[in-house]
Amino acid sequence: MSHELFVDWSPDSRDHAALLQSLVRDNTTRGGPSGYRNVAIIVRDHKSGDVSSGVWGHILYGWIFVELLYVAESDRHQGLGSRLLTAVENVAREQGCVGVWLNSYAFQAPGFYEKNGYETFGELENSASKGEADNRLRFFRKQLRR
User: Fold this and answer.
1) Can you tell me the distance from the alpha carbon of 107 to that of 130, in angstroms, rounded to the nearest whole number?
2) CA angle, 61 as apex, 56 and 67 as ends, to 5°?
3) Are 101 and 62 in contact (CB under 8 A)?
4) Residue-wise pLDDT tens digits, 68-101
5) pTM for the complete prediction?
């Protein structure tokens, strides 16, 4: 059987949904229910109600993956980032998760995660040319005590 491959730079979300549905079906058959659930911890501006900082992630097979963690410039160096991590760790414990994992580019805040008890478990090498930002991608995890 011959398959024709197509590169699509503007993919249709319905194609994504079809692939995801098939993957979930196969994963459930092989690995059991994933327990997939979105989780967000949001900080809103007191006056406007707009999102200013927060964490966005999901639970999958007993781990919370932190997809986004952002602290507004005006809120940095006041402990809010650590409070957000602690909050997501507490959610993980409440949901019976093993731990929390995330990734961070070297030019972002890897020291922040280490300071909060996260350990590196992988890294994608730097592909930056000389003089550019260090763009190594580091993977961090924190296993939780129950």
Assistant:
1) 14
2) 20
3) no
4) 999 999 999 999 999 999 999 999 999 999 999 9
5) 0.88
R_g over Cα of the chain = 18
C-alpha dihedral, 105 to 90 to 57 to 41, nearest 10°: -100
pLDDT, tens digit, 9 for 90 and up, residues 3-58: 999 999 999 999 999 999 999 999 999 999 999 999 999 999 999 999 999 999 99
Give the C-alpha separation, 100 to 82, whole Å: 14
Identity of the amino acid at 82: S
Instruction: Report d(CA 84, CA 53) in Å as an integer.
Output: 9
- Whether residue 45 contacts residue 70, with contact meaning beta carbons closer than 8 Å, is answered with no
Give the total residue count for the chain: 146
3-state secondary structure of 89: helix
How many CB atoms within 10 Å of residue 60? Answer: 14
